[in-house]
Write a structure and sequence with these properties.
mainly alpha, threonine synthase, domain 1, chain A, two-stranded antiparallel sheet, 42% helix, globular, disordered N terminus
Length: 159
């Protein structure tokens, strides 16, 4: 995987809010807080407080990238580099896709008049791996690895 292309600056101020946020509430959470807590204190899910704008030119550029590079670029928009550095995020993405048995990662096959995404090419042949766990577990490790070894072990059982 080549990382030589210029990487846009991450959204250093990206914060996350609850889906149950009440009008006037100003509670925002860091990426680390959102990742490690799972649910917001009010029981809602965490969502980005803002959605980055992607120009048509940027969308075209993204469409030319490999799947792992695209995953990195999208994650970089939401994961502040002061919480997960560029090199760490690159390694996490590389690890996340190393064990896929198809270099397309999510091959799309035609079946009659429909197109079907095959989401079972990860290390466990389970759609959940390609959807989130293959990246979430290494992110847990990056956030808490040496300071909370129990959580690291627990996160690995999800794979």
């Amino acid at each position: 995987m080549s990382w030589e292309e210029k990487v846009p600056q991450s959204n250093e101020s990206m914060k996350f809010i609850s889906t149950r946020r009440r009008d006037g509430s100003d509670e925002e959470y860091s990426f680390e807080e959102a990742l490690l807590s799972g649910y917001a204190p009010d029981g809602g899910l965490f969502v980005p407080s803002t959605i980055p704008r992607i120009t048509a030119n940027r969308m075209h550029d993204l469409s030319q990238l490999s799947y792992p590079r695209l995953a990195y670029e999208i994650l970089r928009m939401f994961v502040p580099s002061d919480e997960v550095g560029d090199e760490d995020l690159k390694c996490i993405v590389a690890q996340s896709y190393d064990e896929f048995d198809d270099r397309c990662f999510v091959p799309v096959k035609r079946l009659g008049g429909a197109y079907i995404a095959e989401l079972f090419h990860g290390p466990t042949y389970c759609f959940k791996v390609s959807a989130r766990i293959s990246t979430v577990s290494p992110l847990f490790d990056a956030m808490i690895g040496s300071t909370h070894p129990f959580f690291t072990a627990a996160s690995r059982t999800l794979e």
